[in-house]
UniProtKB/TrEMBL annotation:
EC supergroup of this enzyme: transferase
Keyword Signal attached: no
PROSITE patterns registered for this protein in UniProt: AA_TRANSFER_CLASS_1 (PS00105)
UniProt xrefs under SUPFAM superfamilies: PLP-dependent transferases
Cofactor (UniProt): pyridoxal 5'-phosphate
CDD domains linked: AAT_like (cd00609)
GO MF, any single term: transaminase activity
Family annotation (Pfam families): Aminotran_1_2
Domain (Aminotransferase class I/classII large) ranges: 32-386
Protein name (database record): Aminotransferase
Domain of life assignment: Bacteria
Amino acid sequence: KQLLAKRVKTLTPSSTLAITAKAKELKEQGIDVIGLGAGEPDFNTPENILNAAKASMDAGLTKYTPAGGLPVLKKAIIDKLQRDNGLTYQANEILVGVGAKHVLYTLFQVILDEGDEVIIPIPYWVSYPEQVKLAGGVPVYVEGTADQGYKITPSQLRDAITNKTKAVIINSPSNPSGMIYSKEELAELAKVAEEKDILIVSDEIYEKLVYNGVEHFSIAQLSDAIKARTIVVNGVAKSHSMTGWRIGYAAGDKDIINAMTDLASHSTSNATTTAQYATVEAYNGSQETVEMMRQAFESRLEAIFPKLAAIPGFKVLKPQGAFYLLPDVSEAAAKTGYASVDDFANALLTEANVAVIPGSGFGAPATMRLSYATSLELLEEAVNRIETFVKTKW
Ligand code: PLP
């Protein structure tokens, strides 16, 4: 008998893992590798949040919670959505889950039937296609090209919609491009979604990491009608440097949230209780550290962007949010003798000792992703190494 189910036959491991594993191997051999693969802030979780977690444990609050999340946390999330986004939700429209990633997984499980299509803009976060496929859905890719600022247009969206389309994913600010859809752009996309009667999955996990005066706008803010067809997904991983705590949430239609809650009741029971109490403090407490981290990312971006853009054969748009740079390095790869950006990225690791993520995993094989969630000193050294590598081989 076959050991594995058909469902996992086409499952590909996260593309970021292969190069990260190789970087780790080199480090263990004593080689000084600079890792720019990180998908998480390099700051510790703020002190007030750690203290709230400790206090909840000391008070004995370590038992199961309701499957959809602690009422006190749902309240904190409702207040956050009102305060930051001007969005009004009731408790039965909120699900707290094990990180935004698992919330998205649960969402696709409850909205997709076999063969339902989900529109995924390129470049995309690696988990969207796999999660859609695991739910029996079919990813339909629409390319946001570099000259469109790595964003899709309303006519591209319209052309991709069939009678099987269930939803479109909007990730703004975007991982990996760092691009942000303006209110006007979102309005145009939403109009198409409304006209064609599809759901909008709005992944806003990088909401707080926006730079140079650009503002985050949630597509659900456009109107009550748009809000009704949007599921907002967010969490504290990136905003509060809480990646390991695994708390995310969905806000949207109560029937969808109810089904997600029922599914969670049979899969996770609840997100970790201590982490939920920590998140109550993350949202109700001071937001000063959130802003401090944002400023640190912004100043790194300002320092490193011009240097990266000046490397021969690198074409890079200035990101507006998140903490990634996504240069098109196809020319640099070709001029230095590599057949693909994958090979170029591999050589950067083994010869220049800088670990980056090749864009092939994001559907954008001309690009590579560099994370600036690391110290300025290391970033500058990494960019110097890349520049020397390119100039030497050109
Ligand atoms: N969505 C995007 C676009 C991400 O980049 C990530 C994390 O890398 C997530 C969701 C998942 O966040 P969480 O850590 O809350 O699961």
